[in-house]
Known about the structure:
Helix content is about 30%, strand content about 25%. By secondary structure, the protein is an alpha+beta fold.
Amino acid sequence: MDVRRVVRVDVRRVRAARGRDPGRHVPDAAAVADPVRVGGSPDRGLQPVRGRTVARRRSAPDPALEDVVALTMELAAVPAPTGDEGGRADVVAALLSAAGLEVDQDAVGNVVARVRDTDRERPAVVVSAHLDTVFGSGVALAPRREGDRLHAPGIGDNTVAVAALVVLARELAAGVHPADTVLAATVGEEGLGDLRGAKHLLRTVPARAYVSLEGHLLDELVVGGIGSVRLRATYTGPGGHSWGDRDAPSAVHALLKAGAAALDAVPVGRHVNLGVVEGGTTVNAIAASASLLVDLRDEDEDRLEETARIVGAVLGRAPLGIVARVDRIGHRPAGRMDRDAPIVRAARSARADVGLRPGREDVGSTECNAAFPLGIPTVCLGLTRGADMHRESEWIAIEPISDGLAAVRALLRRLRD
C-alpha cells in the first residue's frame, strides 16, 4: 500500500519557472489549417500523384512542440497515483483556465474545459487524457530530457497526452478548433480506478464523438476495447495455532484450492489472471483471512460475462468453517467500432492529412471502453513512440509528438458538424 500525499502547487511559481505566457505560443488558425479542404469525401486531404493517392506531409516543425515538452516535464514532476490525482488536477485546471477556457472540476475530480458561454446541452466532441499513473507517491519521479527523449515514470502513460490537451486548450480558446469541443483531464483510468473519470464524464457531458488520447501508440489506431471484469474473493475462518489447532480450516488453503479450481473451470482460451494473493500472519499460524484479486479479459462482452459467472461461482465455494465472499470491483465494457464508422474513417483520413502511414487498427484497454455501452462513437489516438510503459524506466521520443498532435488537430477538423 502506498502512503500518498497531497501536493500543493503555486501556479505563479510554475508559470515563472516555465518562463512563458500560457497563451503565447498559440498558432493561429492558418498555422494549423486543414492542408487540403475538400468537403464530404473520406479521402479529402489527399493529393493525386501520377494516378495514385499520397498524403501531404508537413514541411516545418510544429511550433507547439517545445510547449508540449515543457508542459510534460512540468506535469511529470507532480505525483498522480490512481485515486490521488488532486495535485496534478489542480495544476492542469490552472493551466486550462489561464488559456481562457471555462473550467470545472466535477464530482469525481475530472477537470473539464470548454469555450465560455457555449451550450452545455448540445452534444460535443469530447477529448480526454487521463491524469493518473500507475506509480505511487513514494516513487521518485525526477523527469529529465536526454537528447531526443523524455524520461520519467508515467511520462508516456499518460503525462504527455495531458500536456497535449493543454496545448489544444490554448488553440481552442484562440478559435482554432470547433467551439463545441470539450476537453477533459480525467481521473481513475489505471488499475482499480475502473474508468471512474471517463464513465462519469460521458454520463454528464453530452457527446456526439469521444476521442481518448494516450501518450504511446502513435502507430496504432485503437478502434475497440478489450473488456475486463475484476473480482475480489475473500475467505475468513477461525485461525489458530499451526499444530495445536491443526484441525481448524485455513483461509489460505481455501483460497488456493478455489483459485486452482477456478482456473480449471474456465474454458480453454479464456483469459484469467490471479493477480494479487494475500493472507495469513505468520508461518506457524493457521490463516484466519485471505484475499485474491482476479482479472478477466475478453474482446466479447457476452463471453466476458460468462467467464465472470463461472469464476465467481467457483471462487464462492468454501469448505466447512470458512466463509467465502466474491465481489465485483471493476468492469471495463468490451466493444468495437465498425470499420466503416464515420469516426474511424475520419481518424484514418486525419493520419493521411498529416503524412502519417495508416495506423494498425487494434483493440486496447483505454478510456474508449467507457463509450461503447453508451453508443458514443469513439477512437483512441496516440501522441508519440516510446517504451517501458508502467516501469520506472519509461521514456518517450520527442520528435514524433509533432505528428501525434497534428493528427489530433486533423481529426478535430474532420469531426466538425
